[in-house]
Design goal:
By secondary structure, the protein is mostly beta strands. Helix content is 2%, strand content 40%. The chain has one helix spanning 18-23, and strands at residues 29-34, 49-53, 60-61, 66-68, 76-80, 90-91, 96-100, 108-109, 124-126, 131-133, 141-146, 150-159, 168-175, 184-191, 196-204, 210-215, 223-232, 238-249, 257-261, 274-279, 282-288, 301-304, 317-320. The strands form four sheets. Strands 21-20-4-5-19-7-2-1-22-23 form a ten-stranded mixed β-sheet, with no helix packed on it. Strands 8, 10, 11, 13, 16 and 18 form a six-stranded antiparallel β-sheet that branches. The longest helix has 6 residues, at 18-23.
Length: 331
Amino acid sequence: MTVADPNGKKGPTTVTTLVALERTRPAVVVNEIMYRPKPSYGAKDKHQWVELHNPTADPIDVRDWFLWTRDQNDPDRILPDAYHGTGTTVIPPGAYAVIADQDTELDNEVLKNGDFEGGTGDWKFFLGPWQRDFGEAASGNYKIYLCGVGWTIMYQDFKIPATASGDVRVTVRERYNPSFERPDVRIRITNRTGVPLLTVYSGGCSTDWTAHAADLTALKGVDARLEISGFRVNDSRSWVRIDAATINWGPVSRNCVRLLVDDNEIGKNLEDKQVFVGEANTLRDAVVFEKAWGGDDDGCSLSRTSPFAPPTEEPSWYPAANHGTPGEPNS
């Protein structure tokens, strides 16, 4: 059977009707949508997002669920976002997840060129240098060849504003080539003279890209440094590869699950004003809205009054000012 919007557009074929969705307590709901930000924010497709909410008492894994926004015959698969988050797709009880493109600007970033897409930014090197590598198709990264015993370090100084709102978090991804001997990697926060303040990760490198994260909220207003080191015990060839080194503060809580879709183009797909989410054969929630409900070029998100409010009725939604509340309860 199908779900149709007020304009007669057909939704995905499912085994669950929209009527049933409105009468039951859903497992996962579409809770907030930023579909058309202010033009002054820059490119619209760099600021759009969809927030999911788990109102149940159990964790729910949305890995390989689907998001239908434009072409109902070609849904987007939901994937983990290890760049901004921890790489999980499990939404804890009562928690939130934000689906956005990798370069969607939801946070304030205080590191320069943390994705290594070009040049070195403000990175400095000790017993290096690290080398820019273009071998990864998805993004740039830095790697260092370790040919001797000891630490090889790169670092960048930063300062989180004392007035920064919300949580502050650091995330760094690392890996190595298992064809070589496994090196160690150390990711830590120090003061400007190298005295350790916090260790994000210290141990053996991972064979696949692995994200490590830590809470830096206590370091607001502190002159600090992110230090990333590779280490070899033996005098043998190996290397460490680093990517997505970010320190962010802003409206998205560190406890919010960050998600992507497989075409990384959610920002281009929300103009049809419909958002369906669920597994391949089971629709969990279906939202069809009109721009008259709010959120059209005015800096507001479209927020749901309750997780159990009917998803296709105007009284269930209201405009939330100041970019909305992605990753948090609706204001």
